[in-house]
Structures are given as structure tokens and as C-alpha cells.
Specification:
The chain is of the alpha/beta class. It is 39% helix and 17% strand. The chain folds into 2 domains: 40-68 and 333-436, Aspartate Aminotransferase, domain 1 (Alpha-Beta Complex), CATH 3.90.1150; 73-331, 3-Layer(aba) Sandwich (Aspartate Aminotransferase, domain 2), CATH 3.40.640. It has helices at 15-28, 73-83, 95-106, 110-113, 123-138, 155-158, 187-207, 234-243, 266-269, 296-305, 316-331, 334-353, 384-396, 421-436, and strands spanning 42-46, 49-52, 57-60, 116-120, 142-146, 174-177, 212-217, 247-251, 276-279, 290-294, 359-365, 368-376, 381-382, 399-400, 402-404, 410-413.
Length: 437
């Protein structure tokens, strides 16, 4: 796991933290992981700021779950008001879910936008539901994902989430295509190269009797290393998938809700019309709410043949959180802010790259930025060790980011959408100090 704390290093930490880590391991077990060489004990958050147990202020440039900022007052108030009024499920009529679904679908356009919203609690559940619908609609089982994709941690979604590592087995019905690495594959060749890999894996699935149910893709290739260009990459792939009888599933769990700054949804940058769109993480600004938007004809037979109900998915409080988050993104112009502040960050990091050879590539859209760290610029040699040093160095400077990509060498900068130009300046100053060290 990128940026994970090594429990063997606990002896170097203060006694109080050692005791808390030991207690955590005893009570929560070995599967849980902590971030950073020195784990954080966070007790409070507001906007893009966090405070630890010692009162130190930390700039959060990593957490997109709280997309409109930690403890945003409008979201807090909406959840509080609804919780003290009513919390119940979707088997009763309530206007909130309908109003929200209508506004959500209106942001998407296309077949999914003209279709239906279905609510879950998590992005994993959303991708799980998308898989069930795709298989029912197509009568096929096969799924294609990118080489380091992450789509969830349910039993089914873990089987098509290769980023979980070699000890997490992929399904026999899963095929991977390489990351569309715009840093190492010439741009003029990338679209044809990627399309051919998709064709090849479709043939493999057909040869083994699975057939293609869906290609599931995060259009900003988050876990692969954040690759946002060229934006003509996915349209030909969508056509290839449909010609094979499969569905195009746009996983917007990490890259959606105005993250790219240019559009509300990542798939819109590519000008494609997905069959299913899956949603999660930032949808309720920390309250667990997720779901899918699905074309009517894709879900029609599933809806007729199967029953779908989710006890907590789309409950009145979840919808209140989601509605308030969507309202804030619109009313505070957060897509525009992501565009502006993201440009400041990218330009600042590109300036740093003129001084520091470790920076091989700077890429991103809006407030989703990947910085490729290399040991040899000419050879474009990934350097995960140096990336880890930078991530932990920034943590010591009171700035939080993480790393992504198979070698863990791409700095992952993904702050709340309320990140300001002043916040960007603080991050850039700290990054310059860490690189100089």
C-alpha cells in the first residue's frame, strides 16, 4: 500500500501514540492501515484545515471525501435538521430523494442523465450494483479494468480492483489493460495503443467463454497514476466496448463532483455517454451516501426481474447531506475554484521542476494533480522511495498529500474543492523546502 505506516517503526513514536497504535491493533485487527511514517492523531477539521491532538494546524491537500471542506456548516445543518426530523428508507415516499435525483441526473446529460438514479451507501456498493446490472443486461460476465484500478472492497469489486495487490486475487472473468501512460507512451500513439489493448482483452474474454459485460474505468485513472490527457482517449474505446455487446461504466467515485474543474463529471471531459455512472466518496461530504445513474434501457429488465432495496441507501439523512453538498458546489462556484486553484498549483509545480530533477512530469485537471517523481529524467525511471520521502516530508511541514501508481511514485494532490490560492502557495512553499532537503 502506498504511503502506509510500518508498525515495526512504532517504537520510535511517543509513548502515548505507541499505546494508541497497540490498542488499535488489538481492537481493530491487522487489516487496518495508517498513513505516514509518523501517524496522525486528528481531532478536528474545518475547511482545508485539520488540527492534531497537540493543537498543530495541518493543511489538508489530500481528502476529497469532504469535497466542500471539513465540517461545512450547510452540510452539518442539513444533516442535523433531517436527523432530528426523520431518518427512514426509500420504501416510503419522500420528496427529498426525488428532488435530489432530478438535480443529480440533470448534471449528467446523455443516456444515464435521462435514466434513473439508484442509491447505495458506498462507492463499493455502487460498483457492485453496476456489475450486477451489466451482467443481467448483457448475459455476459467479463469485466475489463486498467492495470492498477481500484473499484471497491466488496467481494465482487475487490475481484476487479488490481490495486489491492497481488494477495487479493482477481476474478477469472477479469482482464486488465495497461495504464494509458501519457508520460511514457507518445501521445500521438496513445489512443490507438489503448484501444488495441481493449480489443485484445475482449477477444480473450470471448475465447474463454465469458464475453464482455462491462469496461469499468475512472476517466482520470486515479489509482494508475492520474492521467487526464488526451481527452480523445475514451470515445473510441466506448465504441469498441459496445460493438462487443458490453457496457461502458464510468466510475466517478473519485473523479466526479466537479473535481476536474472543467465539468461536473470526469467522463464529460472525454465527450462520452456512459451506460452507467457510479458515484461515491465526495457525494455527501463525509456522510456515507453513494449510487449510480443508469440508462433506462440498461436497467429495465433488471428492474423487472430482480428486486433492489438498500436499507440505508438513499435514506432521508443521506439525501439531505448529498443535496447540501451539491448545492454548495453550485452556489460557491467550486468547479470554477478547482479550475483556478488547480492551475496555480500545476504552474507552481512546473516552476519547481525547473529546479528539481526529481520532478519528471506534472499532470492533472482542476484539483486533481499527479506529480511523477523519477530518479532519471532521461530514462523516466519511477522513484517510489523518493516520492515517499516527499510525502512524509510534507507531513512534517504540516501539509498532507499521498502517492499513487503501481510504483507509488506519483504524488497525489487532491484537496477539498474549497482549496484557495493561499493554500496553494503554502503547499508550493512546503514542497520546495522538502525537495531542497
Amino acid at each position: 500500500m502506498n504511503n502506509a505506516f510500518n508498525p515495526e517503526a512504532a517504537a520510535s513514536l511517543p509513548p502515548a501514540e505507541q499505546r494508541m497504535i497497540a490498542r488499535r491493533e488489538r481492537l481493530l485487527g491487522p487489516a487496518y492501515r495508517l498513513f505516514y511514517d509518523k501517524p496522525l492523531h486528528i481531532v478536528r477539521g474545518r475547511g482545508c484545515r485539520l488540527w492534531d491532538a497537540d493543537g498543530n494546524e495541518i493543511l489538508d491537500a489530500y481528502n476529497n471525501v469532504v469535497s466542500v471542506g471539513h465540517a461545512h456548516p450547510r452540510v452539518v445543518e442539513a444533516v442535523h435538521e433531517q436527523m432530528q426530523t426523520l431518518c427512514t428508507h426509500t420504501r416510503y415516499l419522500h420528496a427529498g430523494a426525488l428532488d435530489y435525483a432530478e438535480q443529480l441526473l440533470d448534471t449528467m446529460g446523455g443516456r444515464a442523465g435521462d435514466g434513473h438514479a439508484m442509491f447505495t451507501c458506498t462507492g463499493s456498493e455502487a460498483n457492485d450494483l453496476a456489475l450486477r446490472i451489466a451482467r443481467h443486461h448483457t448475459g455476459r460476465r467479463g469485466v475489463i479494468v486498467t492495470s492498477e484500478a481500484y473499484h471497491g472492497n466488496s467481494a465482487a469489486t475487490a475481484e476487479f480492483s488490481p490495486s489491492l495487490g497481488d494477495n487479493s486475487p482477481l476474478g477469472t472473468w477479469v482482464r486488465r489493460v495497461p495504464t494509458p501512460d501519457s508520460y511514457r507512451v507518445p501521445r500521438a500513439e496513445l489512443t490507438a495503443w489503448f484501444s488495441e489493448h481493449v480489443r485484445r482483452q475482449i477477444r480473450e474474454l470471448e475465447r474463454h467463454g465469458e464475453g464482455l459485460a462491462a469496461l469499468v474505468v475512472d476517466s482520470m485513472f486515479t489509482s494508475d497514476g492520474i492521467y487526464v490527457d488526451p481527452t480523445e482517449l475514451l470515445a473510441p474505446v466506448a465504441e469498441i466496448v459496445r460493438e462487443a455487446g458490453g457496457l461502458f461504466v464510468a466510475d466517478e467515485v473519485q473523479c466526479g463532483f466537479a473535481r476536474s474543474g472543467e465539468h461536473t463529471w470526469g467522463f464529460q471531459r472525454h465527450g462520452i455517454d456512459p451506460d452507467i455512472v457510479t458515484l461515491g466518496k465526495p457525494m455527501g461530504n463525509g456522510y456515507p451516501v453513494a449510487g449510480i445513474a443508469v440508462a433506462s434501457e440498461v436497467v429495465e429488465r433488471f428492474g423487472h426481474d430482480m428486486r433492489y432495496f438498500n436499507t440505508f441507501g438513499g435514506n432521508t439523512v443521506a439525501v439531505a447531506a448529498a443535496q447540501a453538498t451539491l448545492d454548495v458546489i453550485r452556489d460557491e462556484g467550486l468547479a470554477e475554484n478547482a479550475n483556478r486553484t488547480g492551475a496555480v498549483l500545476r504552474e507552481g509545480i512546473e516552476d519547481l521542476s525547473k529546479r528539481f530533477e526529481q520532478i519528471g512530469d506534472v499532470r492533472g485537471a482542476g484539483l486533481y494533480i499527479g506529480v511523477e517523481i523519477v530518479s532519471d529524467r532521461a530514462a523516466r525511471t519511477a522513484d517510489g522511495g523518493e516520492a515517499a520521502r516527499i510525502v512524509n516530508g510534507l507531513r512534517e511541514h504540516g501539509v498532507l498529500i499521498s502517492a499513487t501508481g503501481a510504483p507509488g511514485n506519483v504524488l497525489k494532490i487532491r484537496p477539498p474543492l474549497v482549496f484557495s490560492a493561499a493554500d496553494a502557495d503554502r503547499l508550493l512553499s512546503a514542497l520546495g523546502d522538502v525537495l531542497a532537503a
